[in-house]
Amino acid sequence: MKKILFYLAICCFLPKLFAQEEEVKNEPFFETDSLYVEDQFYIGATYNIMFNRPDNVSQRNLSNGIYAGFIKDLPVNKNRNKAIGIGLGYSVNTYFDEIKITRQGDDVVYEVIDSEISISKNKIITHIVELPIEFRWRTSTPDKYQFWRIYPGFKLGYVFSDIYKFESGAERLRFSNPDLNKLQYGVTISVGYNTWNLNAYYGLNQMFDNASLSDGTAINTRDFKLGLMFYIL
């Protein structure tokens, strides 16, 4: 009798055991990447403000810029939500204001444009290769793709190409300004959640080197950029 009960128990439980084994085998397997990195490619657009310009000078139109690049993400803790980012990027920027720039021999002359003069173009365009460095804090995890981020940092830039353009009636000016600081650097911060991030840059050095208006007023303009940044991968 005991043997019969034993065999019946086996017959009852074996199918359940095989069913559980089959269920485990059929379950999808997701491997957690413990060595994940974040935010290695970026692209953005900015509104450029010529900060600390002379009192009698205002900006015209919408000064703007676009930029993109790659940042190597280097986590510094086990959870990988704190990191240092070092990268390489490119930006093109356009600035509109009321200062006319002319070349007189080896000298560069700056003068405020009279409000009665009709101008069709007065802008500076710069092309910059950039080296961004970020100190990264985020709420990410290996399987969490939407998270908060705060990335303060520093950016070093080299202006490898610039052009000043002026048009008023029959007058046309187009040249590279030797007074423009080729080396530009400043502090940055990027704050946001998921796709949307506010980004700001404040230049620590002046845009122009020893420049002044025709009346002697120093041009101590610094670059301030405010815009949106999008991180990818």
Question: How would you describe what is shown here?
Answer:
This is Outer membrane beta-barrel protein. Keywords: Signal. Residues 1-19 form the signal peptide. InterPro entries: Beta-barrel_OMP_2 (IPR025665). It comes from Spongiivirga citrea. With 233 residues, the chain is mainly beta. The chain has one domain (37-232): Porin (Beta Barrel). Helices cover 11% and strands 53% of the residues. The chain contains 1 helix and 11 strands. It has one helix at residues 2-26; strands spanning 41-51, 64-75, 82-96, 99-104, 107-112, 121-138, 148-168, 171-175, 183-193, 196-203, 222-232. It has an 8-stranded antiparallel β-barrel. The longest helix has 25 residues, at 2-26. It is elongated. Mean pLDDT is 87; it is low at 2-10 and 17-27.
Radius of gyration based on Cα positions? 30 Å
The H/E string reads HEEEEEEEEEEE
Total number of β-strand segments? Answer: 11
Remind me, CATH topology?
Porin
**Distance, first to last CA:** 67 Å
Tally of discrete structural domains:
1
Into which percent range does the helicity of residues fall? 10-25%
Keywords: Signal
Protein name: Outer membrane beta-barrel protein
Domain Outer membrane protein beta-barrel: 18-209
Organism: Spongiivirga citrea
How does the SSE layout of this entry go?
Elements: H1 2-26, E1 41-51, E2 64-75, E3 82-96, E4 99-104, E5 107-112, E6 121-138, E7 148-168, E8 171-175, E9 183-193, E10 196-203, E11 222-232
Antiparallel strand pairs: 1-2, 1-11, 2-3, 3-6, 4-5, 6-7, 7-8, 7-9, 9-10, 10-11
